[in-house]
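Each record in this resource describes a single protein on a pair of labelled lines. With that in mind, the following record should read easily:

===
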Amino acid sequence: MTIELEQVTKRFGGREILKDLTLDISTDTSYLITGESGSGKTTLLRILAGLEKPDEGRVRLLGDYKYTWLSCGVVFQNDRLIEYLSAVKNVSVIRKLTSDKAAREELEKLLQKDLLDCPVSELTAVQRRMVCLVRAFSVPADILLLDEPFTGMDERERNEAIAYIREHKGSTPLVIASADPTGLETFKTIRLG
């Protein structure tokens, strides 16, 4: 499976965020999209997810697909959690086939057991990011897109999150947008801006 971007340009309010970007994203590869704030990292992820269309250029899927776009496991910059639900329910609700038991087992890899059943509104920002990671990896996906997934994490937490990502990614292409490459040095790096 390959996603091919050919001379993609995207503008907002007359400002070019991405200009003539050409990129191939293929199975089994992990990518780090890096650059300064405003360089187009989030915009690129949104284009890959099908949430934005390029103003110029094209995005093509190469492979056998029943649908016109891919299914994505996504961590957005905003957590997009259901505040009154527990961590377990936030993971299990996104996919009916994910049981509470399966969600709990995955969450226990990144969170303490006593945090799993309280509303996510009571969790710290870092704990919420961990829930987002587990949720993104809990759906069958053609591609994984993680936008600044390590926000607020200290070195230990970041290392745990990276280990979880590496363990669960399988052969699915992975694209992480992050200004900080620490721990991601083995990823194929694409610098924007």
In short: The CA atoms of residues 10 and 16 lie 6 Å apart. The chain has a mean pLDDT of 91.
